[in-house]
Write a structure and sequence with these properties.
The chain is mainly β and 245 residues long. The protein has one domain. The chain is 12% helix and 54% strand. The protein contains 3 helices and 17 strands. The chain has a 9-stranded mixed β-sheet with strand order 2-1-5-7-9-11-13-15-17, with helices on one face.
Length: 245
């Protein structure tokens, strides 16, 4: 079992197959890590070495953190944030390196997250899904995928969505900076609410409005993540109850 909890008071850790010191985490063997940062402000680096398959489940509770990911292997990252703000820098540094990022956030304050993914070498893969629920305040997502001319046969995909239940404007700024034609690249950006058809379908099954929103939000935020029962118990209670939006 690998578990790290970082707060403004210190660090708790229980590790058997992950290296951790001085705000740097290194995967030198296949492993899964549960990482929590609570009321923390700072930076953190995560390295996945060559031919290593790593999985990280990240909980960010009222934290402002800049992350750097140096990836030579395969990383699946499932991140859940409450009022998270920061910068995410991802570098794919070895052929066949891959990152799959599922990011879910719930905000009730002004928040901005900047994500930059660089395909340093050919034949690398990045698949990014960022889903945000904005209850109050303004949320801004800046997302940049970079494929230089020397990096052919890469896959660079983004799926960015903000469900805005507040009165402030929310913004998504997606960028694909592609200098190589032999690349599969795509991005999507949506700011709005659930469709009436989605709500109608569930209500037609006899569910009340609050339950409909709860089920839709649970799927929207966590549907793509592979979570343990303990992680579900930690994440699911934060799903907001919404009625008559």
């Amino acid at each position: 079992m690998n578990k790290i909890i970082i707060t403004n008071r210190g660090v708790e850790q229980e590790l058997d197959s992950v290296l951790f010191s001085e705000n740097k985490i290194i995967f030198n063997k296949d492993a899964r890590l549960s990482l929590s940062l609570e009321n923390y402000e700072g930076s953190l680096s995560i390295e996945v070495q060559e031919e290593i398959s790593a999985e990280v489940v990240l909980f960010l509770n009222n934290s402002k953190v800049d992350f750097t990911y140096n990836i030579k292997g395969d990383l699946t990252l499932s991140s859940f944030g409450l009022n998270y703000q920061g910068k995410i820098s991802i570098s794919l540094e070895k052929e066949q390196a891959k990152i799959t990022l599922y990011s879910a956030s719930i905000n009730d304050q002004d928040r901005k997250v900047v994500t930059k993914i660089k395909h340093v070498v050919p034949e690398t893969i990045s698949e990014l899904v960022q889903h945000v629920v904005s209850l109050k305040g303004s949320t801004t997502l800046e997302v940049e995928g970079i494929v230089p001319k020397s990096s052919s046969q890469c896959v660079c995909k983004q799926d960015n969505k903000i469900l805005n239940f507040g009165t402030s404007d929310c913004t998504i700024l997606p960028k694909l900076l592609i200098d190589n034609y032999d690349v599969e690249a795509a991005h999507s950006a949506y700011v709005g609410k659930f469709s009436e058809d989605e709500l109608f379908y569930l209500q037609s099954r006899g569910l009340d409005e609050a339950t409909c929103y709860y089920l839709l939000l649970k799927s929207y935020l966590f549907g793509k993540m592979s979570l343990t029962d303990e992680e579900k118990e930690l994440f699911y209670p934060h799903i907001p109850m919404i009625k008559e939006v």
